[in-house]
Amino acid sequence: MKILKDFRDFALRGNVLDLAVGIIIGAAFASIVSAVVDNILMPIIGIITGGVDFKSLAVKVGSAELKYGMFIQATITFLIIAFVLFLIVKAANNMKLKTAVAPPVSSTDLLLKESNEQLKAMRQNMEKFLQNAQKNS
């Protein structure tokens, strides 16, 4: 029964549960936005455009009917969902703590830092020595 244990471990992993919750919330959110677009925004847009019902916009091509009004409405719904999700992600990113954790310093880094400081001190001493030597000559 190792396969059942492996499946349980996979299904109960944090990322999978987060993804499932996100999909369920996303579907509920999409239905709310669709209801707002269908029942509030599109009627208002229809009034502004002279009483046009976008759902009924279609073109007959032979025996087929191309319902481009449904496409327009779906596009508006998508744009609203995308914009709201953009605002949510932007707000979440702004709420995150932006503290930078300094990486641990290795012994090699410490040795390099000390060597660099010693070399800097030696250079300064050498410059002073050369300046004194020029003054005395």
Describe the structure.
The chain has helices at residues 2-11, 14-48, 68-95, 107-136; strands at 59-61, 64-66. The protein has 2 domains: 2-99, Large-conductance mechanosensitive channel, MscL, domain 1 (Non-ribosomal Peptide Synthetase Peptidyl Carrier Protein, Chain A, Orthogonal Bundle), CATH 1.10.1200; 104-137. It contains 4 helices and 2 strands; from the N terminus they run H-H-E-E-H-H. The chain is mostly helical. The protein has a two-stranded antiparallel sheet with strand order 1-2. Strand 1 (59-61) and strand 2 (64-66) form a beta hairpin. 75% of the residues lie in helices and 4% in strands. The chain is elongated and about 105 Å long.
- The domain count comes to 2
Mean pLDDT: 83
**Unreliably modeled segments:** none
* Beta strands, count: 2
CATH superfamily of the largest domain: Large-conductance mechanosensitive channel, MscL, domain 1
Structural class: mainly alpha
